[in-house]
Amino acid sequence: MESTRCLLDPDYEISEQRGFDGLGRPTLAMPSTCPAARTEHQRCAWLQRSARFGLLRGSFRPQGAIAALRAYLRQRERLLDYAAAHIQHMQKHSLR
Questions:
Q1: I need a labelling partner for 66 at 20 to 30 A (CA). Which of 11, 35, 51, 89 fits?
Q2: What distance in Å separates the CA atoms of residue 51 and residue 73, rounded to the nearest whole number?
Q3: DSSP string across the chain
Q4: CA dist., res. 18 & res. 50, Å (int)
């Protein structure tokens, strides 16, 4: 789940619009890694136990227009990075 965080943003937004109040991405109020968790299953069990004891809190989830603005700015930054990479590619191959 951690590696797919940005893929889940639309799901969280739809859930929030329909009145479901989830944690978002859970963050721990204690060290962020479980030293004993060697597998994903062990890490999930550890997060479940932490939630049961109230050691998790939801991450910051911006609302409405701020979420849209952040998504727009991330997309703009990604497009600028792509453009820069293409310019470098053209410059590299034009010197040959």
A1: 51
A2: 33
A3: -GGGHHHHHHHHHHHHHTT----SSEEESS-SS-TT--SHHHHHHHHHHHHHTT-EEEPP---HHHHHHHHHHHHHHHHHHHHHHHHHHHHHHH--
A4: 27
Please name which of 31, 69, 24, 68 lies closest in space to residue 50, comparing C-alpha atoms. 31
Please count the CA atoms within 13 angstroms of the CA of 91 that sit on its side-chain side: 6
Distance CA 39, CA 47 (A): 13
Structure tokens belonging to residue 78:
């990604």
Low-confidence ranges of the chain (pLDDT < 70): 1-9, 21-37, 95-96
Euclidean distance between CA atoms 80 and 87, whole angstroms: 11
